[in-house]
């Protein structure tokens, strides 16, 4: 759980579907360049969940940080309460998802130490300094905060 009705995850498998069903999700924001697996796509379709695939074109280097364009599009989805309950995910729920959450925390005025602590908690031993640098340099003024926004913002 990131905030009320806002969750993060890696790509789930069939064992996770009953739990996800209980969340009553309306929206999945998928950040990986490749498509989710077919079983998950079938689950999304069966549950009438809207999928926003923002991963875009696979980069030449898998370690490249997520683009500013994807971050802004993901935050636009996250800041729209009509999309809730929502889950933000990538393959493992670590780096791309962690970068989005870090930028969201910056928008929430968290201090960088707390943002990086949360990022590292999920990234484990595979922290990517370029992602932390992206979060630190991310310009929150680029984000259009809607009038009808989630109450936690």
Automatic annotation (TrEMBL):
Reactions the enzyme catalyzes: O-phospho-L-tyrosyl-[protein] + H2O = L-tyrosyl-[protein] + phosphate
Species lineage: Eukaryota, Fungi, Fungi incertae sedis, Mucoromycota, Glomeromycotina
Keywords: Cytoplasm, Hydrolase, Protein phosphatase
InterPro entries tied to this protein: Prot-tyrosine_phosphatase-like (IPR029021), Siw14-like (IPR004861), TYR_PHOSPHATASE_DUAL_dom (IPR020422)
EC number: 3.1.3.48
GO CC terms, sorted: cytoplasm
Gene3D superfamilies, A to Z: Protein tyrosine phosphatase superfamily
Pfam families: Y_phosphatase2
Keyword Transmembrane helix (UniProt): no
Domain of life: Eukaryota
Main location: cytoplasm
Compartment(s) of residence: Cytoplasm
Signal peptide segment: none
CDD domains: PFA-DSP_Oca1
Name of the molecule in the record: Putative tyrosine-protein phosphatase OCA1
GO molecular function: protein tyrosine phosphatase activity
Domain Tyrosine-protein phosphatase: from-to ranges: 1-151
Source organism: Diversispora epigaea
Stated family: Belongs to the protein-tyrosine phosphatase family.
């Amino acid at each position: 759980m990131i905030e009320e009705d806002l969750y993060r995850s890696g790509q789930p498998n069939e064992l996770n579907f009953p739990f996800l069903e209980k969340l009553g999700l309306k929206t999945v924001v998928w950040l990986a360049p490749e498509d989710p697996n077919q079983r998950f796509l079938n689950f999304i379709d069966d549950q009438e969940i809207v999928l926003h695939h923002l991963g875009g074109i696979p980069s030449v280097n898998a370690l490249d940080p997520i683009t500013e364009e994807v971050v802004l599009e993901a935050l636009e989805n996250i800041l729209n309460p009509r999309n809730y309950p929502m889950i933000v995910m990538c393959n493992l729920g670590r780096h791309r998802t962690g970068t989005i959450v870090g930028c969201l925390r910056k928008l929430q005025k968290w201090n960088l130490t707390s943002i990086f602590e949360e990022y590292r908690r999920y990234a484990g031993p595979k922290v990517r300094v370029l992602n932390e640098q992206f979060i630190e340099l991310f310009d929150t003024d680029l984000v259009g905060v809607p009038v009808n926004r989630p109450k936690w913002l």
